[in-house]
Amino acid sequence: MKVAVVGATGLVGSKMLQVLEERRFPVSQLVPVASERSVGKWVRFAGKRHRVVTVQEAIARRPDLALFSAGASTSRTWAPAFAAVGTLVVDNSSAWRMEPDKKLVVPEVNAHVLTEDDRIIANPNCSTIQMVVVLKPLHDRYRIRRIVVSTYQAVTGTGLRAVHQLLAERKGKPAERVYPHPIDLNVLPHIDVFMDNGYTKEEMKMVRETQKIMGDPNIRVTATAVRVPVLGGHSEAVNVEFERDFDLEEVRQLLTQAPGVVLIDDPTQNQYPMPIWAQDRDEVFVGRLRRDESQPKTLNLWIVADNLRKGAATNAIQIAEHLLRCGILKPNNGKQN
């Protein structure tokens, strides 16, 4: 299968190449794409070097699948051009997530919504992905009424320049400032731009994307998104109010059986999810399960995942794997040159 990776030299694009290789996705020809300044450079995949090409050259090659991680403006401009030549696009940006005619997919939650007609499929926000993977089996059993979530998000969610800022500050060296304040030894309650309602765009993404992915606009969500001086791995404190009461042991059983979820919850042994344990893992980790003693039918959880893998690259590739299994994605979807 001919696969294009748009944004192949970025943090997420590089991770996509790694995950494609690790999961043995059937790539017969890789087409790495990046900005003009990176064209002509080389990336390694499956033991070989591959030359980075322009997006126009990639479209001319008519790949079967294009994985996008190059920003919303690039996706809006070029994803339809790939789709027009028969390429199936999975886009990691925010460009298409809330478009009514585009599917927003986390395979463990709502892969069933995908059809032959879907040519551009949206990959959700990293924080939303890890939360809904854990909450879906609980929603099916108890019906969620309201979610209160606070995120603790790693600097890799911003990109390589943010990593450089953190590491330079940690060494006491001058740094190009990506954030409006220092990030080392600091916590910023500010991810993305502030909106008129006082929330950030990141926080509102979690509200709207959760409702769309879960297929329930009645789920009420409020979020506070925070950047922390961690290189990789997003963490979330989640408080969930249900319509029906729950048994804590049954909750544990549901999460143990849930696809893509690992339960780590033994406070007596100091066992709970941490970003350092989630690095380079595709699962979503959950722990600190406890009943909210301030109101009925409400549960507290702590959720952690690798934001570059399950929060971005792996989820996109899992979408492609599902499309392969159900016959929607086929080699030579487009006419090959």
Name the descriptors:
337 residues; alpha/beta; Rossmann fold; Dihydrodipicolinate Reductase, domain 2; 2 domains; six-stranded mixed beta sheet; five-stranded parallel beta sheet; 10 helices; 32% helix; globular
User: What is the overall pLDDT average?
Assistant: 96
CATH class of the largest domain: Alpha Beta
- Overall geometry comes to globular
Number of strands: 13
Q: How widely separated are the two ends?
A: 14 Å
Task: Please characterize this protein's 3D structure.
The strands form three sheets. A six-stranded mixed beta sheet has the order 9-8-10-13-12-11. A five-stranded parallel beta sheet has the order 2-1-5-6-7, sandwiched between helices. It has ten helices and 13 strands. It has helices at residues 11-22, 55-60, 72-84, 107-110, 126-142, 160-170, 201-214, 248-257, 275-278, 309-325; strands at 2-6, 29-33, 42-45, 48-51, 65-68, 88-91, 120-122, 144-153, 220-227, 234-242, 261-263, 284-291, 298-305. The chain starts with a strand and ends in a 12-residue tail after the last helix. It has 337 residues and is of the alpha/beta class. Helix 1 (11-22) crosses helix 10 and helix 5 packs across helix 7 (201-214). The longest helix is centred in the middle third of the chain and has 17 residues, at 126-142. It folds into two domains: 2-95 and 313-325, 3-Layer(aba) Sandwich (Rossmann fold), CATH 3.40.50.720; 127-306, Dihydrodipicolinate Reductase, domain 2 (2-Layer Sandwich). The radius of gyration is 20 Å and the shape is globular.
